[in-house]
Amino acid sequence: MKKILMLFIAVSLACSCKSTKTTNSTASANENAIEKKLQQTWVLENLNGKLITNKDFSISPTLQLASSSFSGSTGCNGIKGSLLSDGAGKLKFPNVTSETKKCDAKKEGEFLQLLRTTSSYSIENNKLYLSNQFGLTMSFKKG
To answer: Which residue ranges run through the membrane (predicted)?
Structure first.
């Protein structure tokens, strides 16, 4: 009788753990979904409080944001990676990858570093504002 009771308890625990994992992964997938208003093309206008110029980038960097990934350009090299959102106003670019063509884009490294440290965003008047723990880092206009 003890063996049957122990077996019943073990099976019950295994089933309850499995159902908890399924529920958590579904909730986390919903939390990581990127808002629809972000899912479009954005063109960089401002980097670290300064308007970008042709001296900084030969072509303006762009981001094409999708529901869980992004692609774009640094003004010379192609970039891509995944997107994560922990809720409204939160946004991260956890694994940015870039081509390695030699470029004259003086601010390319700064752009990539700020993208990697992004933690939040806001959208106002058709502009996307990205921030990190220190404050506003970049602004983009709709592309």
So the answer is: none
